[in-house]
Amino acid sequence: MFFSIIIPFKDGGYREKYLENCVDSLCQQTFTDFEAIFVHDDSEKLQNIISESGLKASVINMNESDTLSDYRNIGIEKAKGEYVIFLDSDDYLHPNALVYANEMIKENENQNDVFKFGIAKTNLDKISTLSKSKRAFFEGESFSKIEEILRDVSIDVDKKKVKQIINGLFEKQMINHKFNNIKPSRYLQDLNYQFRVHSFIIRRKFLTDNYLYFKSSNNLYGDIPFLIELYNKTESIKQTTTKLYYKYIHNDTINDPSLTQEEHNDRLLMRMSALNEGLNYCYDLRLARKLKLSAINYYLYKVVKSSIFSESYSELEKIYKKLNSILNRPSTEFTLSKRHDYEISAIKKGKFKKAYYLSKARVLGYKTYQFSKPKNQRFRQKKIQKNIFTKLPIKDNTILYESFLGKNYSDSPKSIFKYLLENEPNKWKHIWVLNNKELVEKEPEFKNNNVKIINRFSWKYFYYVTVSKYFVLNMRQPKWLYKKAEQVILSTWHGTPLKRLVFDMENVTSANRNYKKDFYNQSRNWDYLIAANKYSENIFESAFMYPRENILTYGYPRNDILTNHTEEYKKQIKEQLGLPSSKKVILYAPTWRDDEFHSVGNYKFKLQIDLDQLRKEVGKEYVIALRMHYFISDNMDLKGYEGFAYDFSKYNDINDLYIASDMLITDYSSVFFDYAILRKPILFYTYDLDKYQNMLRGFYIDVNKELPGPLLLSNDEVIESIKNINKVNEEYKNKYEEFYKKFCYLEDGNASKRVVKTVFGEKLGD
Ligand code: C2G
Fold this sequence. Notes:
By secondary structure, the protein is α/β, with parallel strands linked by helices. Helices cover 42% and strands 15% of the residues.
């Protein structure tokens, strides 16, 4: 037996879902001379996954009180292989990992006992494991590109067939990539001391000869002393430059935290203890210096900022004692800056109280310094919000509104505002968060003395978010917002979901690792959440983990106008927008793509509609109104299309565009749920359907069955459908009706009224 792979699985209930990946990756190994040893906490699921996979594995059952270190020690004890590999149960190996490990060992076996896999961080997104150039072929535009090429050379092929071929190629590419397409490894000598044992490959005899085992006292950081001892006993470690160990990055710290993301009260003390314990086995004075510096930095930047530091001196003292022991160990020299040295020397001498006051003063001094730095305006605003504004009385009759982060005056906040202004004209003070005042220059409501406009993140914003009784918004409030119990946040959200959201999304391609956690914390502060229909209510409960009893399933306030407007209003809007009265209007309103962006929050969009062809074929009857999603930062260049194509991406309220238009083209945007209220034709231009559905988001409904219009994959198909729109209407009549019944049944034009009654009614409505 050449390799023994040790996989501990502890406190694993919710981690079970990653196991399959891990087991799969062992089944797929192209080098098969290995044994897998799973050490687990009596998980039935683990046993099932292994037996279903057909993997030959030893399975060792442990007691609840055993630590992760005990698990690994048992694994070492049972191992029969020449080399032991440490794999975590939520991670996985490249199918050729063992081939390269074997190759690396064979080349270096006389000099080395310890080896390592290079680590790739992953969130399991299939396509992201392909190289950039390979990815390009399968992404986004490839299908229309191939179509275009074939059209240019007059080759007529069945489009569906081409799609199928591309899909097949992709699958094959994934397999090839996994099994064959990997560059030969080179090996590194110099390691950046890593203190986590996963990805290590260690000669078993080296472990037994040196009595190397995991110290069981430390459940969280048992691998620190183990690795320190190991580093002391080995001259060099070889590592594959190719990344063969896939470390899974958890993006859901609420439901699936990794071990390092889990909350542990004594995490700080455990880490300090592990470093202290590790120093018992450290004879290399340069490594000892590194460990000391690591402990010092941990104290200076982590411990002093923790709640233990500010709340519990007795707990802090335990940490001081460990650090004191660490500081008094031998090591090579190092110097610290003066102000750090005061604190650290005091700890070294055992003068903990003195160190505590010095550290406290440093943190305070740092905060004061931060507070006064000219560029730290935001920091000052947050501090003053939390410490001063929250102490001021709440303004009971003030309502703050924000739509799409202050970008426009629109959506449900606008409808609720207008309803209150009309029906309770003197009761409320209304504050609108709007970054560009010019947007509402012509709106009569803003002439009212009770209505005020403020900029997002201005001083007034920080003030009003803290003292307004109500905050009505359609996205999320800022993370730093400290909400008082008397305040009411009404979240209107901004659409019936088609694309999977937050906790229903496996991978979060576009957002950072804390996205789910942040979303969870922010939405806990919503007192109410509006849903347009029962379908949305169900989704919000799972996708936001939001309590059903606080969901107001009333229909969307923003849609009242779609039910209530007159023909005259349509005419008026068309005129205001500068659209020719003699022509019908096609509205094109696509959504954004998680993987196409310039920078954080600035998304790209490449128009896939051929305006020349469209104008040529339907220009006599129609004009086109283009409306990009609010995340898209690219500006459209419509030079040469004057009188035919119009860009309304910066226009305030998409409702006006719905009303002014005669037909909608969209893709995966929630706009069609609202547009269907108008019972006007809807076409779906879904040129990248596969990627969007399978790689990026996934959908809540079966788009092939439930949509109220056709899915179109090419520009030609779009034009054909526009030309034959009556036929399309006839074809989709029944589906449209069913769709309306499921999603639009609450839209009777009175949603704002219902919301106002519930949220603003009782306490102040008397
Ligand atoms: N919107 C718009 N113009 C577009 C697309 C969207 O004005 N071209 C507005 C519509 O009001 C739409 C809302 O933004 O309902 C949400 O847009 P989506 O495209 O559905 O995408 P997203 O912002 O990701 O929201 O539950 C709905 C989801 O949250 C989707």
